[in-house]
Amino acid sequence: MANARESELHYPLGDTLPASGDALDVAPGVRWVRMGLPFALDHINLWLLRDRLDGRDGWTIVDCGIASDDTRAAWERVFAERLDGLPVLRIIATHFHPDHLGLAHWLTERWSGRAAGPPAGAPLGGARSGNAASAAANPECRLWMSATDYHLARLASGSTIGMGGMAAAAFFGSHGLTDPEALDKIRARADYYPTMVPAVPASYRRLMEGIELDIGGRTWRCFAGHGHSPEHISLFCDDARLLISGDMVLPRISTNVSVVDVEPEADPLRLYLASLERLRSLPDDTLVLPSHGKPFRGLHGRIDQLIEHHGERLADVMAACAAAPSHAAGLLPVLFKRKLDLHQTTFAMGEAIAHLNTLWLGGRLQRQLDADGIYRFSAR
């Protein structure tokens, strides 16, 4: 959902964007990389942090882009021209979604001195290639991320967890999505996640709430956020007043908060709103480095906007269910005023169910499975 109050935010870099394969300095030792995505949301922001790790000077990369030839080629241009001749020392992934984790395996292999990328049909977790001598001669470039998202990525890269296939189609069908063409397309998306995340590094280093990382002589504190992914990690540097927010706080659009088939009674919206309130403890003049959109200031105002947005959507859902028993598919026109393609419809369905589940689990709605196999919600 587009932010109608975006003008209340401040963009210190204006409309300046880094070109694909280039990097833009946003603060001392912090560079902004922008990669393309094949969706309506057509880009992701990635970050380079000047670092020193285990006595070596180099860079930490935060988030990776999807696994594609175009993204690899863009990274190679960055490596050739924007690393000042220094190596990549580690990879941090904010969460498990494909645009954030897709090339983690390729990046860690490349900067550990092993062959770049898994072979076709690589086993879960990715097969290491190259001989033992070459591996031993190069320090390990490790993936760092939360345990919950790491292990979910390991499962999803070899299956269809919450991303498509038969289970997702059946789940959306139970919430009123009955269009045969849409359901057939969802069933056909069984390889949605593995296509963009073909392998996950076989080992990692765990990040969690409160951990402090020394990155280039600066302290970055981990904030664990919930709702968008199970254990999303944002990074805050107090000295530089910088927040790498990942997908938790975006300036132009609201973060997707979805229920998926593997946890059908989840309440991610409640968790997401609570996570936003915790980020309010950070200074309002923090420069927010989001995964989509442009760096901005006005963190507290944006948190207020997001909470207000979801409050309005909950009120809309409540009113619709009070008027007549409703299912998630029937609420899509209430929650989303624009025409949705299939990719957007799957996210919209997950978000509609998230709003219904918050009201149902909070005791404001009741849920009933009707004879047609569809859950409908009504006011108590």
Automatic annotation (TrEMBL):
InterPro entries: B_lactamase-like_C, Metallo-B-lactamas, RibonucZ/Hydroxyglut_hydro, Sec-metab_biosynth-thioest, WH-like_DNA-bd_sf. Residues 43-292 form the Metallo-beta-lactamase domain. Coiled coil: none annotated. PANTHER family: ENDORIBONUCLEASE LACTB2, METALLO-BETA-LACTAMASE SUPERFAMILY POTEIN. This is MBL fold metallo-hydrolase. It comes from Pelomonas cellulosilytica.
